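Q: Convert this sequence to C-alpha cells.
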Amino acid sequence: MKGEKKYIIILTLVLIGFVAFQLWGPKPLNWIPTYLPKDKNPFGNYLLNQVLTDVFPEQTISHSNFTFYELQDSIFDHENILSISDDFDPDKEAVKVLLTKVHEGANVFISANRFGGLFRDTLHLTTKDKFFEQALDLSSQADTSFIDMKITGKRYYYQSTHIGYYFYKDSLRHSYTTVATNATAQPVTIRIAWGDGSILLNSTPLAFTNNYMVAEQNHELISSTLSYLPVDKIWWTSYYQVGRLESTSPLRFILKTDSLRWAYYLAIFGLLCFVLFEGKRKQRIIPIVSPLANTTLEFVQTIGNLYWHAKDYKAIATKKILYFLDRVRSKYYLMHEPEDRLAQLLAKKTGQSIEETQKLFSLIKVIQASPNISAQMLLDLTTEMEKYNYKN
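A:
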C-alpha cells in the first residue's frame, strides 16, 4: 500500500505541474490572420489601430463586427469606412449601401487579397498572385524571398508570399489612381473616385499587420496610404474576416451580462461542490433480519420436560405411541388392520423380525391398558421404537 501511495502522489504532482504549465506557461504564437484591432498576434492589427490614432487625431474610431448594411444608419457623409480581410465578398445589400454611402461623400479603405460578388463586378476588379505565377513559370530565376512595395518613390520590403497579390490592370474599367506598386510595378493600392467620395483599395492585407508594422520603416507606408482618407471618424468593421464573433451558445445572453454570468458560474461551482461532498448515495441502515427459526424440536423438548418432571410417564408414552402409529400410516400406508396382520406387514416393510415387531405391539397394548406406567416402561418403549426410526 505504501508503494502504491507513493506512485499516486507522484502522478498527481506531475498532472498538477502539466496543468499549471498549460495555464501559465508561454503560449505559442498564432499565425492565423485575424486582422482584429485588439489582436497582438503577428497577423493581428493592434499596431495599425495605434497608428490610426496618430493619423486621425481627436477622431473617434468605432470597432464592430457589423455589415455595411447594418451600419448604414450610423455612417454620415465624409466619414471613413475600413475593412481588412483575406477575402472581401459582401452580399448585394451591403454593396449597395457601401457604394451609396461613398457616392454621398463617405470614403472607404478596403484591403483584401481577393474581391468577389457584386462589388468585384461593379468595379471590375481582378487580383492575381505574383508568387503563384512565378511558381508556374519554371524558367523564372527571380529571387522571390522578399519583394518591395513602393509609394511616393520609397521602397519597403516584405516577404513575397505575403504581398504577392496585385490588381490586374486590364480588368480595371473605372478611372483610378495608383497609390502603391510592387517590385514589378503592378498596382497593389489604388484609389477610385466614386461620386462625392472615394474608394481606396489594397491587395496586400498582411502588410498592415503587426508582423510588418515593427519591421524597419514599414509603418510609413501604412501612414502614407491612410493619409488618402480625410481626417474624420472611422468605422472599422471586422465582419468580413471573422464574422460576428458572438457566442453560438444558447446561454449567450447570460454570458454577455456580468451579473448573470457570475451567477451562472457560482451555480455551476455550487453544483460541483454538492456532487463532490453530498452526492454519495445515502439511506438508513438496513437491519439484518434473521430468518425465523424452526422451534418445533425445542417446543417438543420443552413439553416433554414438563411431563418428565411431573412424572406423567403415561402421557409421554401415549404421545409417542400416537406419533409412531401416525408415521406407520403415512409412510407405510398401513391402517385399519388387525394387530397380528399389522405386525406382520410392518415387519416385512421395515426388515425387522416378526418377533421384535410383535413385542413392540404387545408393549404398546400393555401401556395403553395401564393407568400409570413406570419410567422403565417408557424407556423400553422408546428403545423399541428407535429401532424402526433408525432403520428407516
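The two ends are 59 Å apart (CA to CA).
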